[in-house]
Amino acid sequence: MGAELGPGWEVRGASLVFEVRLADFAAALAALNALAEIAEEENHHPDLTISDYRCLTVSLTTHDAGGLTANDFVVARRADGVLAGEA
Predict the structure, then answer these.
(1) Please, what is the Cα angle at 69 between 56 and 31, to 5 degrees?
(2) Running DSSP on this structure, what letter comes out for residue 2?
(3) Helix orientation angle between 70-83 and 25-42, rounded to the nearest 10 degrees
(4) Residue ranges of the alpha helices (H) in the chain?
(5) pLDDT, tens digit, 9 for 90 and up, residues 51-86
(6) Looking at residue 69, what is its pLDDT?
(7) Closest Cα partner for 39 from 58, 57, 25?
(8) CB atoms within 10 A of CB 45
(9) Contact 55, 28 (CB under 8 A)
(10) Residues facing residue 74 across a β-bridge
(11) Exposed/middle/buried for 41, CB within 10 Å: 0-12, 13-18, 19+?
């Protein structure tokens, strides 16, 4: 499953995580909002955080299952379209 993801994703414990440093706060916020739209469409919601004003972290897990499921990888693959080239 994970081989289908773009570079930058890593498994940390029971989560699939991607971290990226964007150009500025506006770019980080735009990426966060684009990811929020994907999450709503898929009805599968990652933890999204902006730190240091331009660092976006995406963390996916399926809480009900206690770990990773196919849903996490679906959202991650779609997120790649937003995050590609940003790392």
Answers:
(1) 20
(2) G
(3) 150
(4) 25-42, 70-83
(5) 999 999 999 999 889 899 999 999 999 999 898 766
(6) 96
(7) 58
(8) 14
(9) yes
(10) none
(11) exposed
The backbone torsions φ and ψ at residue 29, rounded to the nearest 5 degrees and listed phi first, read -65, -40
- Go through the domains of the chain in sequence order and give each one's CATH number: 10-83 (3.30.1360.20)
**What is the C-alpha separation between 8 and 59, in angstroms, rounded?**
12
| Sign (positive or negative) of CA dihedral 31, 33, 36, 41 | negative
Residues constituting the chain? 87
pTM: 0.89
**CA-CA distance, 34 to 40, in Å (whole number)?**
10
**b/e per residue, 19-31, with b = 16+ CB within 10 A?**
bbebeeeeebeeb
Cα diameter, the chain:
35
